[in-house]
Amino acid sequence: xxxxxxxxxxxxxxxxxxxxxxxxxxxxxxxxxxxxxxxxxxxxxxxxxxxxxxxxxxxxxxxxxxxxxxxxxxxxxxxxxxxxxxxxxxxxxxxxxxxxxxxxxxxxxxxxxxxxxxxxxxxxxxxxxxxxxxxxxxxxxxxxxxxxxxxxxxxxxxxxxxx
Length: 163
Description:
The longest helix is centred in the last third of the chain and has 37 residues, at 123-159. The chain is elongated. It has helices at 3-20, 29-42, 49-76, 81-95, 102-118, 123-159. The chain has six helices and no strands. The chain has one domain (3-160). This is DUF456 domain-containing protein.
């Protein structure tokens, strides 16, 4: 395959990966990592293997953090273990709902329902806990976005031979 076509394919995957960090229909950093790997091994790039390892680790960390951070910030905002568990369960259930942003709606519903199951009389606490989960989602998405942009920049700069 022509190097130009491989470079275009890599850039498309990297851009789609960045979009996927906040659009749930795309697998985010996995697309970006795929673009990076195709670039490294599909061209005669001198990109050091260190980049592959670092971005592979960051991609794996991001996948874990996208579940852990909302549960942790839920607790920071007064939530209980019930809300944290609800966050994880709601996210997983929401991924299978045939609605846009199902995973996000599931996460928030899970936190809210978990907190209400713990204390059905304190709706204000359940709302604060859900707010914490939302802030955690923003942190996790921000981390993924930064990693995706970094992968894109590494490939573009290598294409321009600046690395």
